[in-house]
Design a protein that fits this description.
This protein is an alpha/beta fold. Helix content is 27%, strand content 29%.
């Protein structure tokens, strides 16, 4: 079975495929480059079915390693930069014998990063130096390395392709394993309502170690359009891009900057999206969309264009969804193959349905998310949903993003506190008047803290568990 990369290299060899800070690849050039990387991995002993762990932030090299793993039939496990002990926990999930683990670091490390691993050497993976002309054709002193004949046919849509770790509401991440067919089903369902085609370009603005970042890659591979891997500076990276996945704060700052934009459609994450922001974007010719998704479902499950009705949108094709009471269960073709543990898979579903632990309700044919079952707490005998408070806080014009967590309280059992990203000049003293008409008093946060940069720099999803741990460390009486 031919991979989509090879399909587009044959079907549209001269169309632009990948834009980086220094180069632009056509589909044919990209396929040659990926073959080279696959050959480098093969020389280091990687075979079909092997798990390669990629550690680090987004880079062109990381994307190439993922694509090369697809060609080899290897499984790419992706994880963020982290401490040695955190990485060792994840490696113990992936490898039965840590001495046989294969780990590649996107950034050189000065000390031993983990216990008893085989570290893949970057210089042996990326062996050929390509030089580019201004007309985007390339020259090289060495022909692209050819894969071993047996390796060229290892791509299989039904073989495990990716492992992504959940953030873990309890702090214990799970290794979620998908095959390409499941990722592509996710892409097909979204692109049926959210057009992305050849001639368009999507910015890889989310980390590949989040399923939402991988979802961008598969939408790109399915459509044969363009993908841009930027430098990390959004105001520069957004240039020439027609599609992007952003949080509302990022879009607001782009619009307020008045810089020229080629954006046509933006998929927004991170919670409630103000209709006024959507209208502001529409005046610039930009459609804004939001949705609901999760790691186990290969990203987006429901989606819609932002409007004045608060909901997460309609169910996308190739998914199933049902409510039992308020509990959300999902099924369909995008669900992961299982949780990965040392070469074994634990199924996600019972009778074909996965319990998301999220709560919701139907508003017509649209799904409204109430919150996570484990984010509900009791304060003074009353049930409180963290997400309900967050929705109100996020509508305040001076709050860019809010996350609410419960803290112990001798009188009430628990009380809510808010950790927020705000505009300059925010004063929590203004909040009682704002909240008075929108939330019962027992739901008002008793304190507001500024979100530290370290918790908000890794893409759309901020870990509620990490916020709780930060509170305990920095404000022990609250955490």
């Amino acid at each position: 079975m031919s991979s989509l990369l090879k399909h587009w290299a044959h079907q549209s060899p001269l169309l632009p495929a990948l834009i980086t800070p220094t180069h632009q690849y056509t589909w044919r050039e990209l396929a040659d480059k990926v073959d080279q990387v696959a050959a480098g991995l093969t020389q280091q002993g990687i075979q079909a079915g092997h798990v390669i762990t990629s550690v680090g932030k987004n880079s062109v090299e990381q994307l190439l390693v993922y694509l090369a793993c697809l060609e080899l039939g290897a499984i790419n496990a992706l994880t963020m930069p982290q401490t040695k002990s955190e990485l060792d926990v994840k490696l113990a999930t992936l490898y039965q014998d840590p001495r046989e683990s294969h780990v590649w670091f996107t950034q050189p490390l000065s000390s031993a990063p983990c216990t008893a691993t085989i570290t893949l050497e970057t210089e042996h993976i990326f062996q050929t130096d390509y030089t580019y002309k201004t007309d985007c054709t390339y020259q090289t002193d060495h022909a692209p390395m050819s894969l071993h004949p047996d390796a060229q046919s290892r791509y299989d849509q039904d073989a495990l392709a990716s492992i992504v770790f959940t953030s873990g509401s309890t702090g214990t991440p799970k290794a979620v394993a998908h095959c390409s067919r499941q990722h592509l089903a996710s892409a097909q369902g979204l692109l049926a309502v959210f057009p992305f085609k050849q001639g368009d370009c999507w910015l890889l603005s989310l980390p590949l170690y989040h399923v939402s970042g991988l979802a961008i890659v598969y939408r790109w591979l399915l459509s044969g359009a363009g993908l841009k891997v930027g430098s990390g500076e959004l105001s520069q990276d957004i240039q020439g891009v027609t599609h992007a996945s952003l949080v509302a704060t990022q879009l607001r700052r782009l619009l307020d900057s008045a810089q020229p934009l080629q954006l046509k459609q933006v998929l927004l994450g991170g919670g409630h999206v103000d209709h006024g922001l959507s209208q502001q974007a529409a005046q610039r010719g930009i459609e804004t969309w939001l949705g609901y998704g999760l790691t186990e479902a290969a990203s987006t499950v429901t989606a819609k264009r932002v409007d004045s009705t608060y909901s997460a949108g309609r169910l996308l094709a190739k998914r199933r969804l049902k409510l039992e009471g308020q509990s959300i269960y999902i099924g369909g073709e995008t669900l992961a193959s299982g949780y990965y543990q040392c070469g074994q898979l634990t199924p996600l579903t019972v009778n074909g349905w996965f319990d998301t632990k999220d709560l919701g309700e139907w508003v017509g044919d649209e799904l409204r998310i109430i919150g996570r079952a484990d984010n509900q707490f009791i304060s003074g005998g009353e049930n409180i949903h963290c997400e309900e408070i967050e929705q109100v806080l996020n509508r305040h014009p001076m709050i860019d993003f809010a996350i609410v967590v419960p803290v112990e309280d001798l009188e009430f059992g628990h009380r809510p506190v808010a950790v927020i990203i705000t505009s300059d000049g925010f004063d929590s003293g203004i909040m009682p008047e704002y909240l008075d008409s929108q939330l019962s008093r027992f739901k008002w946060p008793i304190a507001y803290y500024t979100m530290p940069a370290g918790l908000s720099e890794n893409g759309i999803k901020i870990s509620r568990h990490a916020v709780k741990q930060w509170l305990k460390l920095n404000y022990p009486t609250q955490g």
